[in-house]
Amino acid sequence: MDEQDELHVAMFPWLAFGHMIPYLELAKQIAQRGHKISFISTPRNIQRLPPLPPNLTARIKLVSLPLPHVENLPDNAEATTDLPYDKIPYLKIAFDGLQDSLFHFLQSSSPDWIIFDFAPYWLPEIAAKLGISGVFFSILSAWTTTFFGPSSSATLNGDDARTEPQHFTVPPKWVTFPSKVAFRIHEAKRFLDHTEVNSSGVTDGFRAGSVIAGCDVIAIRSCFELEADFLRLMEDLHGKPVIPIGLLPPSAQFSEGGVDEEWVPISEWLDKQAQGSVVYIAFGSELTMSQNEITELALGVELSGLPFFWALRNGDDSVRLPDGFEERVKGRGVVWTSWAPQRRIMAHESVGFFLDSLRL
């Protein structure tokens, strides 16, 4: 590629690894096409990212912006995985505190484009002031993004008559084609959390509405083969280009930083299990389960008789497994309480089923 055709693209994902990893995969795809990337996050998150492929290190610059101190945000908490769910609004306050440092970086580096997430509602205005084109990249599907509202202004202003969980269990009225796609009741209850003002001072709906309204292009982690109707509907609703960029699976040759120590005992156990027999259970860092839910799930897994690997993060010891559970399932199941290399576990031939928060 000629130097004059090379673009400089800045990327600014939300501080969750479920967001940062897809953004990093997109960064690799763009860099492989000869463009320059500035991938912006916080120091500790940058350290925890998977190593870059050697052939792309010259094209992808990892930029660290330290988070400001925020009351009620624990030290070294720089991602959602470091926090219980109810503390995440304080992470958003710290994230919003990056405005000035991000402005100065963009002003000095002059990227052609910036790709941003749902959270920095203040960023489109900065990009416009600096003459930088903006892309909102949603890691969610087109239908999920469509559910937020019929337009960016409706999402931004909270102009939505849907106030009860059951309102979200049917397709919204602005879906103009036959569809049965909607939330289940437990999903709808969680979705409503995003419509309430939290300690950060704004709703997640306001954040999403702001970036949709202020971007030049919407990029969706999806493809026409999966949801062509919803992708076209998004273009109609928002009046701007919507680009499906694919599902961005992890690179074929991946490496998860710091994984060796954890992976060795996990792989040894998985290697002993029959092909396709293991149930992998992982709910991520942003789902808070009650004691009753933990107990019911544990007893159900025990009664199933199936081999299982359960990645259970319980940093504050707020819930506990039933008495004697681990002893009764010893040899058949593993409860793993530290960080788990999910991509390697999912790729192992013994894993035949994945139970996550979307299947609760």
TrEMBL record:
On whether Glycoprotein is a keyword of this UniProt record, the answer is no
Keywords on this record?
A: Glycosyltransferase, Transferase
Q: Cross-referenced CDD domains, in alphabetical order?
A: GT1_Gtf-like
Q: Quick check: keyword Chaperone in the entry?
A: no
Instruction: State the SUPFAM superfamilies in the record.
Output: UDP-Glycosyltransferase/glycogen phosphorylase
Q: Which GO terms describe its molecular function?
A: UDP-glucosyltransferase activity
PANTHER family the record matches: GLYCOSYLTRANSFERASE, UDP-GLYCOSYLTRANSFERASE 91B1
Protein name (Swiss-Prot/TrEMBL): UDP-GLYCOSYLTRANSFERASE 91B1
